[in-house]
Design brief:
By secondary structure, the protein is α/β, with parallel strands linked by helices. The protein has two domains: about 100 residues, no CATH class; about 170 residues, no CATH class. About 15% of the residues lie in helices and about 30% in strands. It is built from five helices and 18 strands. It starts with about 20 loop residues before the first helix and ends in a 34-residue tail after the last helix.
Length: about 325
């Protein structure tokens, strides 16, 4: 084979970009966009101290507010003194204004009792952390978690203090009744400042707040009352099976003309009612009913269950209950 017959090499230029790289480049771009979106939605990380964090899991336990997930548990550890569990929570960017001074956190677990059944949604999914925003405006990174869900916290209404020597059968969530209808609840029981008696903090729902007036009487209607004698035998009185477990508080108001009371008013809680209290029958329009009657019949007298015209209405003076409603402070 001569030199003229030798084949000549053909040189090809390699393409810098091939179609085979299109899919990886698109996947990389989508991944970068997802990472950027995730970083953009990330809010602050807060630390919550709980006495017990049983069931809380990293990356699985959500933080909810009004039924909407606003964060997730990102870490669990013990405090430096090893007496509490330190739960780290990563909030969403939209929930950043909720983590302010006064915010409350608690763990929701299933609870079953005669009074109420709560947290059943966490039986299969596991516990969740609930948040109640604080009223402060200063951002905060560390919080002390509650051991139990707050009762009546953040709910509008009339807040009263009932002072008793011994609050038998009264506990958190005990109902407060008026003529057998639940109009409020107990949200806290503690010793009085002088430690001589107990203070029962109750919330009367806004609609029923007009029922509490100066001179109203409160008594403990929990448990079983047994009365007996040689001639009349034994009388057994039970309010209901529910009151045996939760307890109950009843109250009555002498007159609709008595002035309304302010939040923080102290009343004394009696062990049993007097006969005259049971005979009281004040005709007091409820909050919503009073406004409706005022719009429909502005000319009727307030004592008949209606209000006068808005321009002529004279608001009842608000002052605390008379001295006999509360025991003297020691």
């Amino acid at each position: 084979m001569t030199a003229e017959q030798l084949p000549k090499a053909r040189v090809r230029r390699r393409r810098l970009f091939r179609l085979v790289w299109v899919v990886p480049v698109i996947a990389l771009g989508v991944a970068a966009w997802l990472v950027w979106q995730h970083m953009r939605s990330m809010g602050p990380e807060v630390q919550i101290r709980f006495s017990d964090a049983t069931g809380v899991r990293i990356g699985q336990t959500p933080v909810n507010y009004r039924g909407v997930q606003i964060g997730e548990v990102s870490g669990i550890a013990l405090t430096d003194d090893r007496k509490q569990a330190l739960v780290k929570v990563r909030l969403h960017k939209s929930a950043e204004p909720l983590a302010t001074e006064g915010a409350l956190f608690w763990i929701v677990r299933p609870q079953i009792g005669l009074n109420q059944v709560t947290g059943l949604s966490t039986v299969l999914s596991g516990p969740e952390i609930q948040l109640l925003p604080g009223k402060g405006e200063t951002a905060q990174k560390a919080f002390a978690g509650l051991d139990n869900p707050p009762a009546a916290l953040g709910m509008p209404g009339l807040r009263l203090i009932l002072r008793a020597q011994s609050p038998k059968g009264i506990r958190t969530s005990t109902p407060v009744n008026y003529r057998g209808v639940e109009v409020g609840m107990v949200h806290k029981v503690e010793l009085a400042p002088n430690s001589v008696s107990a203070d029962i903090h109750v919330l009367i729902h806004s609609r029923y707040a007009p029922l509490v007036r100066a001179g109203s009487a409160f008594w403990n209607s929990s448990g079983v009352r047994v009365e007996g004698g040689i001639l009349k035998g034994i009388e057994l009185e039970i309010e209901s099976l529910r009151t045996l477990y939760t307890g109950a508080i009843e109250f009555a108001t002498p007159s609709e003309k008595a002035p309304r009371v302010k939040s923080g008013t102290v009343f004394f809680l009696y062990d049993k009612p007097k006969d005259e209290w049971l005979a009281w029958s004040a005709k007091i329009p409820l909050g919503g009913a009073q406004e409706k009657v005022a719009q429909e019949k502005p000319g009727q007298d307030a004592a008949a269950g209606a209000s006068k015209a808005p321009g002529k209405e004279k608001p009842l003076p608000e002052k605390p209950a008379p001295a006999e409603s509360a025991p003297p402070a020691n």
